[in-house]
Task: inverse folding
């Protein structure tokens, strides 16, 4: 089966957002005066962000979103061949496989399942992996990509170096892909990773290097940290925008399309100035995207959420050309191309 003979399309999406929110004022208060409410809104671009409730575990939010996607697309769970979890590793129980849990909870007993992880760039990469697997394997026709995210639990708001992650929120997302579609087509993807940043950020306590002990217990659960502040800052300043634009350029080139045709950018949440810089560089405006200022950053769920909201708000129309772009600590950058309708 030749690659150019197979179309992979998006059936639809599902989103789960917790009922509880943290406002810009709440965030400012937690910084003990380091940040003002106004600066949280204007500079960091956060009006409010969802935070998890009692039953909003990472895996469970992936289930909630999957059930929404199934309902929204009128999909029989028994028709799903493969489930790829993009949910985060901060979850209910370490060393449990989220995709297999989702499989059981949604009744997809004919599927097989695995977890995939690239931090906040996972969804775009998972869509590429799913497409390539569907092309390569005749038995894989319908794929569910789903997961949850609540890494905001791990943030110490009194650490000034962590302001770039004050936007971390909570939620779940799911997207269904199907082989042989003639609409909502997923075209090509380009991904860049940079291993020089592999150990610049992460959770400091809880692994084999720094196990949680009675002495560090109070620190451990707020220990998502930037380990090497200067290196990470300088390296990202040098390569981040360049890598994003390279990913966009190459994704469009691989797709045989012109990036000037972008109608909608499914972009992750980050500070307001960078958001506008990217839009301006691509010749786009606010009408071509949704700034997630009422959600913050839901990690790898952002691109699914942006697509979902773009359709709801009719910014994505029949014939729209979409590019999802993402980045994840480690560091990874990715972009894809989708033609809607």
Result:
């Amino acid at each position: 089966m030749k690659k150019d003979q197979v179309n992979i399309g998006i059936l639809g999406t599902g989103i789960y957002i917790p009922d509880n929110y943290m406002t810009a004022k709440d965030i400012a208060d937690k910084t003990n005066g380091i940040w003002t409410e106004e600066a949280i809104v204007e500079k960091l671009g956060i009006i409010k962000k969802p935070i998890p409730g009692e039953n909003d575990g990472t895996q469970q939010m992936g289930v909630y979103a999957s059930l929404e996607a199934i309902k929204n697309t009128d999909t029989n769970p028994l028709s799903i061949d493969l489930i790829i979890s993009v949910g985060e590793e901060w979850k209910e129980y370490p060393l449990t496989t989220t995709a297999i849990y989702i499989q059981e909870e949604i009744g997809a007993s004919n599927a097989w399942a695995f977890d995939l992880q690239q931090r906040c760039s996972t969804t775009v990469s998972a869509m590429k992996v799913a497409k390539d697997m569907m092309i390569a394997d005749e038995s894989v026709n319908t794929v569910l990509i789903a997961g949850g995210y609540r890494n905001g639990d791990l943030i110490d708001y009194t650490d000034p170096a962590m302001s770039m992650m004050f936007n971390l929120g909570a939620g779940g997302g799911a997207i269904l892909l199907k082989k042989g579609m003639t609409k909502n087509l997923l075209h090509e993807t380009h991904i860049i990773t940079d291993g020089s940043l592999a150990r610049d950020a992460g959770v400091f306590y809880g692994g084999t290097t720094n196990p949680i002990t009675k002495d560090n217990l109070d620190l451990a659960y707020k220990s998502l940290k930037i380990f090497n502040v200067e290196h990470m800052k300088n390296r990202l300043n040098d390569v981040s925008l360049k890598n994003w634009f390279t990913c966009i350029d190459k994704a469009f080139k691989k797709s045989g399309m012109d990036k000037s045709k972008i109608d909608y950018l499914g972009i992750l949440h980050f500070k307001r100035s960078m958001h506008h810089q990217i839009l301006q560089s691509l010749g786009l405006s606010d009408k071509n995207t949704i700034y997630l200022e009422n959600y913050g950053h839901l990690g790898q769920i952002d691109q699914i959420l942006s697509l979902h909201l773009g359709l709801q708000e009719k910014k994505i129309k029949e014939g729209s050309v979409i590019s999802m772009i993402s980045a994840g600590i480690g560091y990874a950058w990715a972009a894809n191309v989708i033609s809607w309708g």
About this structure: The two ends are 25 Å apart (CA to CA).
